[in-house]
Specification:
The chain is α+β, with helices and mostly antiparallel strands. The protein has 2 helices and 6 strands, in the order E-E-H-E-E-E-E-H. It has a 6-stranded antiparallel beta sheet, with helices on one face.
Length: 90
């Protein structure tokens, strides 16, 4: 799992397909999560923030478009890193 800075208060949290439930569960810690599916993406909403969820080439990501959303994704990424055994970190 890694957080990519996209500039201008935007970031993308990229994660393995097997981490989908983990990421959604951690988003749920911020409040109720709603998902609206679109043709080529989904809009995931929580705590007043909308994230774009995409899964191109089997590599899912959540994209935040506000500084608050970026902070939420950064917290999820940090929690993932903290819970990953040092030997498995890349």
């Amino acid at each position: 799992m890694k957080l990519l800075d996209l500039g201008a208060d935007r970031a993308s949290l990229e994660f393995a397909p097997g981490d989908q439930d983990l990421v959604m569960g951690r988003l749920g810690a911020f409040g109720p999560v709603t998902v609206v599916r679109r043709l080529d993406h989904a809009v995931v909403s929580v705590a007043g923030q909308d994230f774009i969820h995409m899964s191109d080439w089997d590599e899912p990501c959540l994209i935040a478009g506000t500084s608050f959303g970026v902070n939420m994704l950064a917290k999820i990424a940090a929690e993932s890193l903290a819970s990953t055994p040092r030997a498995l970190r890349r």
